[in-house]
User: Fold these one by one.
Assistant:
Number 1:
Amino acid sequence: MMLGYLLARAGVDVIVLEKHADFLRDFRGDTVHPSTLEVMAELGVLDDFLTRPHTELREIGGRVNGVEVTIADLRHLPTRCKFVAVMPQWDFLNFLAERGTAFPEFRVLMRAEVSDLIIEAGHVIGAHADTPDGPLEIRAELVVGADGRHSTVRERAGLTVQDFGAPIDVLWMRLSKHPSDSGSVLGYFDAGRLFVTIDRGDYWQCAFVIPKGGFDALRARDIQVLRDEIASIGPFTRDRVAALHDWNDVKLLTVVVDRLRTWHRPGLLCIGDAAHAMSPMGGVGINLAIQDAVAAANILAAPLRDGTISERHLHAVERRRLFAIRVTQWAQVFAAARIFGSVASVAPRPPSRTGSLPWPLRLLQWFPYLRRFPARFIGMGVRPEHVRTPEIAKAKSA
Ligand SMILES: Cc1cc2nc3c(=O)[nH]c(=O)nc-3n(C[C@H](O)[C@H](O)[C@H](O)COP(=O)(O)OP(=O)(O)OC[C@H]3O[C@@H](n4cnc5c(N)ncnc54)[C@H](O)[C@@H]3O)c2cc1C
């Protein structure tokens, strides 16, 4: 959506195909980081964007082994917004889709599911999609696969995937929110278990991390096992976990960390999770996908407008983004292995000694200045991108 918006704004004809009828998916995460807010400012839409309901996180923290800790302090970032805006991603996508309608070059087709690519002489020249009105064939100078971690596009393109392994999956559920709840604690960590709460205004969207592939064994047991686990790690939920009536109230989200060996072939480029699936660690995947879109638009807008696009340009996008993606995926895999590597089941474990903190966290509590480093990594990421594409398209209202 972001790449479509940027290209249309720069005068390139774009069609965005989305397989669902709306963006109301629960699995996307809700964090709009300072780097993305900076992009919105560069596009001149930040003030309008921030009028949408959201909460602002200036510090990121958690409760580790019973101790409240602050991990990142975003208030010193060299960005206009020194906070993470917590906003459901469907609001973010709706905002872009609405603003994009101002450009005649921008079209979004909902309920259009890409089923295959059109390939001639090894060159991708379009895509087939299934729509409620029947099959659709779209021919284009460039097809961009931005269809997430189970990408059809990358599979049909025959691009090779390197899997880096993720030791975890996530159970996703809603719990009610009370006015007295603390809004600041995001993650609860104890004895290799992690429970994350995301403030969605009138309820908590919660994530409980389980070992990869462990859901079937867990489901075979009574839901009370999960209720007890959650209540023991996040005691404030004790009076509301009963809302999890049975396993239908819990959704399994599979976590993948992988990357394409090459993100492109003639006529086709993959970006976002389709090129490099990110795990939820650090909550940075959305922002990396946005950064890919900005870099891709910067490099591709002019050759697409002039009709001179070639694989050299597509490779330039991959080259531009690869370092940031490698570093971030390495950090995600490393952190997950350190935290969850030894976790074998969701059976009760002995609680950690209350008050015992791993040494990096102890350092962050003793020397608050150090909290600026994780803030930079989470808030801005490696190699933040800036909008370089001009606004060429004439907005409809102009
Ligand atoms: C459990 C979990 C929690 C996470 N939490 C966070 C978080 O809090 N913050 C964060 O930054 N990141 C988070 N992430 C990572 C983040 O979700 C991804 O990195 C990010 O969504 C990638 O964006 P994307 O646009 O590439 O793909 P997606 O967000 O997956 O979007 C792909 C889009 O393509 C559509 N689509 C798929 N197939 C087709 C098709 N064949 N035809 C047409 N349309 C199609 C989908 O409907 C979807 O709209 C989390 C990941 C997981 C697994």
Note: The CA atoms of residues 280 and 290 lie 15 Å apart.
Number 2:
Amino acid sequence: MGMPVNRPFAIDPTGTPPAGDALAVGGSVADTEIYPILERVAAAGGRLEDGEAARLLESADLVALGRAAHAVRMRLHPRKTVTFVIDRNINYTNICVAGCAFCAFHRAPGAGDGWVITREELRRKIEETYAAGGSQILMQGGLNPDLTLEWHEELLRWLRGEFPGLHIHAYSPPEIAFLSKRSGRAVDEVLRRLAAAGLNSIPGGGAEILTDRVRARLSPGKVGAGRWIEVMRAAHRLGLRTTATMMYGLIETVAERVEHLRRLRDLQGETGGFTAFINWPFQPRGGGHKERFSGAFDYLRMTAVARLYLDNIPNIQASWVTQGEKIAQLSLAMGVNDLGSLMLEENVVAAAGTHHDTTKSRLRALALEMGYELRQRDFYYRPWRQRARPAE
Ligand code: SF4
């Protein structure tokens, strides 16, 4: 039997029946329209349809939405634990030809402040990651025309040789597609070669909103929506697991947010290759609100709807890097089961002027206050154990 969702709820992370407080947060769809939808999808097996997802995104009752998402989260992850991973976000270059309108990180080829990471810098960053208790890196870069497929293979082989137990989570779909185009090799071959050189998994970056209209406006130099999905499909078929992401809050419509979710859910139905979904709002350049600003309520609503809609993606991560600890903590009551990465370094969001920092003990406190134990995990959501350390 499903959780009753016929009236507004107070947030209750234990999943026990609500006290009945309401919290209206704006929106345009009458609350009464959404309760039957929430009641059905909160029950085991209820699948959210596209029109229903749009109504939930436009609805006023954030608390009822969050309660339903939490019920689904507790069904998928019944243990009272919240997971996190320790890794380092390493950018191998800031030189990029894509020229995305929203990006404050990249530099054009030939720019005086463009750079490519050195082996010494890489070694130091990874050794610091091991010292902090992690054995994973998230490595991404701009679309740098000077870096060939062979350069990347050599980099991966070096990493694998120096750090045999390191989990290398690297190269988002736009980077893979760029390497394919630049080398004249099929995506499938590029992925095989990178995996043979040491690549373990692929981040879901560069997705933004997976519709061609939005991408043509914001990131015309990047892959289209169909190509992004194609790269992920090819990776999953080769056995490379990946994450899925969404950056919203720019020019997209509600229907386009739903289209993005639909593409992810459809591919996951085909391959089962996504481990997790992470969403965050666009961070305005310099921290200001020049563009349409997407605030905390929208973040929580988007996260809860994602938990309900993406019923075949097991994990939903909080984005404390963009939202800060308190909103990330609140999201634990609204569908999120993972606090994501305790990142030792983050450059892309920081370049836009958003700085949030945290520590393991603070993440533990956030989880405990919500009634959860914090558990460190690896990329595959297995309990973490220290892998092979670099040679002394
Ligand atoms: S978001 Fe990525 S692909 Fe786009 S300009 Fe920045 S570095 Fe390049």
Note: The mean pLDDT is 86.
